[in-house]
Backbone:
C-alpha cells in the first residue's frame, strides 16, 4: 500500500469536494492550454503567411501595413498606395532581373462575399511556394491561365465560405464602403488545396482581366489610371529577346562598372525612375540599371559570369506573365485602348523571391529599392516578427499571465478544500500515527493529495482545453487559415506538469504542516 | 518484557495548575503475560498507554520494551518502534474510514521497514473470522466487527506488546466476550504481552493479574494536597 494510494483514498473519501476542487484547477489549465494553442496558431498563421517569397515591394509607407495588406490580405481601412506597372517590369526584364528568381504582381482592394479577391498572375502558384517550399496543389480544376484574362482560382477556405465551385463565376467588389461590383465575371477554374496560409481565405483572379474591368476605377483611388503601354508589353512578351538584351547590357556595362560605386549607381537609378513615365526611357536607361545589377559583382568576374548565366532561367520564370500580355492583345482587339491604359497600370505590390544563387544582388536589392522614391522593399518575415513580438506577443503574454493566475487561484482552492477537511481528518491522522506513521509520512500524504488533485485537474484541463480547440478548430481554420488538430500538443504544455506539482506542493504545505503538528494523544482522545 | 521505572507525567492545566497524572515507581509485565489495568475515570490509564506506546513522552522515568528504552529514542524512532513492536486497539473508531478491512491491516504494515505481507493480513482477518469481509469499509461493518479488524491490524506486524484501551466498552455483552476471547487467544498464539484497560469487573475477572492504577501512585496524598493548594 503506497502513500499515493493512501492519498488517493483520502480523495475518494471526499469525492465531491475533491472533484470540484480538481475541476476548478482543470478550468484554469484549460484556459492556459487554449491560450498556448491560440498563441501557436496566431504565431504560425503570421509566420507562415510570407513563405515562398522573401520581399514585398510596394509603395512607400508603413512596411507593416504593406505586409498585412498583401501577405495577410487584411482589409485595411485605407487602401495601400500603388506602384506603377513599369516598376514591376524592372523585376521581370529591367534592372532587378538578376536579383530575383520570381516576381509576382498583386492588386488588392477587392473582395467577394468577404473573401479578399486578389488580382495576380499564374506565377503566384506556379512559381511561388508555401511553407517549407511546398508547391501549391489544386483539389479541383487547375491554375488559371495567363492568356485567359477572366479566369480565377479560389483558396480552400474561401471556396467553402463562398460556395464557389469550378465553372462558376463571381464579380469582385471593391472593398470598403460603397464598393461597386465590377461588371466583369471571373470564372473559377481551380480550387486550391488547403495550405494553412492566409491564401486559403482568398480568391485569385487574373490580373489581366482585372485591369480590363471598366468599372474598377471605383476601386482603390490609385486605380484611376488603368492599364499600360502595349509596345513595352510586347517587348516584355519576348523573353528570349529581352533576356539576351539585358545580358548584353550587363556585360557591356561591366567595363564601365569598375569605376562606379554602388551607391551612386543606384542614385542615378533613382533619378531615372523619375523619367520612367516616358516609357521608352526604360529600355534606354537600362545601361544605368545594368550598373546596379552588376555593382555587387564589381571586381569579381566569376560572379558576373554567374549572373550572366541567370537570364535564361529568369526568362522562363517570367514567361507566364509575359505570355499573358501577348495573348491579351491577340484576344482583345481594342489595342489602342489597351495601350492607353497599360501605360498607367498600377499595382499594390510585388512579391519577390530573391535570387539565392546570386546573394550579392539579392542582398543589395532592398537597399537599392528603398533608396529610390518609387517603392519600398520590405522583408515580411522581419515585419511579422516585430509585429508579433511587440503587439501580439504582449497581448498574449497578458492572456497567459491571466490564465496562470486562474490556475493559481484554483490551486488556492485546493488549499482551502484540504485545510477545511483537516479537522475531520485529525482523528485519521492520529490513527495512522498510532500505527507507527511518522510526522513526515502524514505530512507527505497531505502533499500527495494536493498534488493528485492538481494533476488530476491538470489532466482534466488539458483534455478540456484540447477538446475546446478541437471543437473550435474549423472556426479557427476559417478565420486564420491555420489548421489545428485537437491533439496539437505544444511542447510548452509539458511545463504545466512540473508547474502544477510545484503549485500543489506550495498550497499543500499549509494543511500538511497542520498534519505534521497534529497532537496524536489529544486527537485520539477526541475520537473516542 | 515491559518495564517502567519512576515514570512521571504531569499536565499543565489552562488555569496554570499542575495535574499529576502518572507517578509510577515500578510496573512490569512479563513476556506473553496478560494483565488488566483498572482505575477510576480520569486517573490516567489512557495516558499510561500513550506513554508506553511512545505516543506521549513521560516527564521523567524510563520505559523499556523488549529491552529497548523508548524514553531515549527520538520521536521518529519511537514511531518506527511502535509500528514494529506495539499493537494498539482503541475503544472505538479504530479503523481508517476510507480503507477496506484488508487495507487497514495492510496500511499498518506499510509503516514498518519490512515488506507488506498480504498473506499474513488475510490470515489475520481469517483468524478474527472476517475473511469474507476483507473488502468492506468500516461503515459496512458492525462495531464488534470493526474491533475484530482492529485486533487483526494490531497484530499485523507481529508486535511484542498489545495495548488495548477499553476494547469492549462499546460492544453488547454477547459480542464482548467473543472479542475479549479473540484478543486473549491471538495474543497467546503469537506470544504477545497484553495490557488491557477496562472499567468492567466482569472483564477483569477473567484475568489472572489485575492492577489498579491508583495503587502505583507514589505519595498520592501529598500530590493531591499540592494540587488543591
Ligand atoms: N493533553 C492533556 N492536557 C491536559 N490534561 C490532560 C491531557 N490529556 C489528559 N489529560 C487529563 O489527564 C487525566 C487523565 O486522563 P486519561 O485520559 O489518561 O484518563 P483515563 O484514566 O483514561 O480516563 P477514562 O477512564 O475516562 O478514559 C484526565 O484528568 C485528563 O483530563
Ligand atoms: Mg481512557
Residues:
Amino acid at each position: 500500500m503506497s502513500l499515493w494510494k493512501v492519498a488517493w483514498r483520502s480523495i475518494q473519501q471526499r469525492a465531491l469536494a475533491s472533484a470540484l476542487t480538481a475541476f476548478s484547477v482543470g478550468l484554469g489549465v484549460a484556459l492556459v492550454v487554449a491560450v498556448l494553442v491560440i498563441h501557436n496558431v496566431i504565431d504560425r498563421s503570421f509566420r507562415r503567411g510570407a513563405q515562398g517569397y522573401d520581399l514585398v515591394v510596394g509603395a512607400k509607407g508603413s512596411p507593416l501595413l504593406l505586409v498585412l495588406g498583401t501577405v495577410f490580405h487584411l482589409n485595411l481601412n485605407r487602401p495601400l498606395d500603388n506602384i506603377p506597372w513599369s516598376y514591376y517590369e524592372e523585376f521581370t526584364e529591367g534592372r532587378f532581373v538578376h536579383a530575383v528568381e520570381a516576381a509576382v504582381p498583386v492588386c488588392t482592394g477587392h473582395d467577394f462575399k468577404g473573401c479578399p479577391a486578389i488580382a495576380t498572375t499564374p506565377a503566384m502558384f506556379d512559381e511561388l511556394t508555401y511553407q517549407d517550399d511546398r508547391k501549391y496543389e489544386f483539389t479541383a480544376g487547375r491554375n488559371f491561365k495567363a492568356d485567359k484574362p477572366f479566369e480565377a482560382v479560389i483558396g480552400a477556405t474561401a471556396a467553402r465560405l463562398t460556395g464557389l465551385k469550378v465553372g462558376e463565376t463571381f464579380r469582385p467588389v471593391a472593398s470598403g464602403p460603397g464598393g461597386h461590383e465590377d461588371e466583369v465575371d471571373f470564372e473559377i477554374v481551380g480550387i486550391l488545396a488547403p495550405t494553412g496560409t492566409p491564401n486559403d481565405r482568398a480568391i485569385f483572379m487574373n490580373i489581366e482581366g482585372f485591369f480590363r474591368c471598366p468599372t474598377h476605377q471605383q476601386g482603390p483611388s490609385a486605380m484611376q489610371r488603368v492599364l499600360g503601354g502595349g509596345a513595352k508589353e510586347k517587348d516584355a512578351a519576348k523573353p528570349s529577346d529581352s533576356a539576351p538584351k539585358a545580358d548584353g547590357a550587363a556585360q557591356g556595362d561591366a567595363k564601365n562598372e569598375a569605376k562606379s560605386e554602388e551607391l551612386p549607381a543606384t542614385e542615378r537609378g533613382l533619378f531615372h525612375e523619375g523619367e520612367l513615365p516616358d516609357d521608352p526611357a526604360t529600355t534606354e536607361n537600362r545601361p544605368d540599371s545594368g550598373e546596379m545589377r552588376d555593382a555587387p559583382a564589381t571586381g569579381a568576374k566569376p560572379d558576373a559570369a554567374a549572373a550572366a548565366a541567370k537570364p535564361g532561367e529568369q526568362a522562363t520564370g517570367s514567361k507566364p506573365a509575359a505570355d499573358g500580355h501577348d495573348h491579351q492583345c491577340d484576344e482583345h482587339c481594342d489595342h489602342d485602348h489597351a495601350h492607353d491604359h497599360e501605360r498607367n497600370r498600377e499595382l499594390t505590390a510585388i512579391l519577390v523571391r530573391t535570387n539565392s544563387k546570386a546573394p550579392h544582388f539579392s542582398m543589395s536589392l532592398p537597399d537599392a529599392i528603398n533608396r529610390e522614391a518609387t517603392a519600398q522593399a520590405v522583408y515580411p518575415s522581419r515585419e511579422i516578427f516585430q509585429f508579433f513580438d511587440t503587439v501580439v506577443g504582449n497581448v498574449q503574454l497578458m492572456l497567459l499571465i491571466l490564465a496562470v493566475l486562474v490556475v493559481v487561484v484554483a490551486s488556492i482552492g485546493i488549499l482551502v478544500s484540504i485545510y477545511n477537511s483537516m479537522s475531520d481528518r485529525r482523528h485519521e491522522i492520529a490513527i495512522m500515527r498510532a500505527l507507527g506513521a511518522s510526522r513526515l509520512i502524514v505530512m507527505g500524504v497531505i502533499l500527495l493529495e494536493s498534488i493528485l488533485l492538481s494533476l488530476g485537474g491538470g489532466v482534466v484541463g488539458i483534455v478540456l482545453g484540447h477538446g475546446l480547440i478541437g471543437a473550435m478548430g474549423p472556426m479557427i481554420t476559417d478565420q486564420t487559415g491555420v489548421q489545428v488538430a485537437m491533439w496539437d500538443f505544444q511542447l510548452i504544455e509539458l511545463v504545466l506538469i512540473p508547474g502544477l506539482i510545484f503549485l500543489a506542493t506550495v498550497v499543500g504545505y499549509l494543511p500538511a504542516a497542520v498534519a505534521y503538528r497534529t497532537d496524536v494523544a489529544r486527537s485520539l482522545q477526541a475520537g473516542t | 518484557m515491559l518495564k517502567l521505572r519512576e515514570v512521571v507525567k504531569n499536565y499543565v492545566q489552562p488555569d496554570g495548575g499542575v495535574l499529576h497524572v502518572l507517578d509510577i515507581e515500578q510496573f512490569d509485565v512479563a513476556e506473553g503475560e496478560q494483565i488488566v489495568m483498572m482505575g477510576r475515570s480520569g486517573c490516567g490509564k489512557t495516558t499510561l498507554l500513550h506513554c508506553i506506546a511512545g505516543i506521549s513522552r513521560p516527564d521523567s522515568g524510563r520505559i523499556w520494551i523488549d529491552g529497548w528504552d523508548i524514553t531515549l529514542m527520538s520521536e521518529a524512532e519511537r514511531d518506527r518502534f511502535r509500528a514494529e513492536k506495539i499493537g494498539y486497539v482503541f475503544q472505538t473508531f479504530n479503523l481508517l474510514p476510507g480503507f477496506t478491512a484488508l487495507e487497514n491491516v495492510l496500511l499498518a504494515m506499510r509503516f514498518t521497514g519490512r515488506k507488506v505481507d498480504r498473506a499474513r493480513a488475510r490470515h489475520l482477518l481469517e483468524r478474527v473470522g472476517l475473511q469474507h469481509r476483507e473488502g468492506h469499509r468500516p461503515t459496512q461493518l458492525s462495531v464488534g466487527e470493526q474491533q475484530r479488524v482492529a485486533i487483526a491490524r494490531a497484530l499485523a506486524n507481529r508486535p511484542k506488546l498489545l495495548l488495548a484501551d477499553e476494547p469492549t466498552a462499546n460492544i453488547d455483552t454477547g459480542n464482548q466476550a467473543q472479542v475479549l476471547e479473540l484478543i486473549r487467544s491471538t495474543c497467546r498464539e503469537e506470544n504477545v504481552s497484553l495490557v488491557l484497560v477496562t472499567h468492567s469487573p466482569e472483564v477483569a475477572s477473567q484475568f489472572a493479574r489485575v492492577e489498579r492504577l491508583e495503587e502505583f501512585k507514589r505519595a498520592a496524598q501529598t500530590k493531591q494536597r499540592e494540587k488543591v493548594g
Remarks:
- Residues A 521-522; B 11, 19, 21, 39, 41-47 surround adenosine-5'-triphosphate (ligand 1) (CB under 6 Å).
- Chain B has a mean pLDDT of 89.
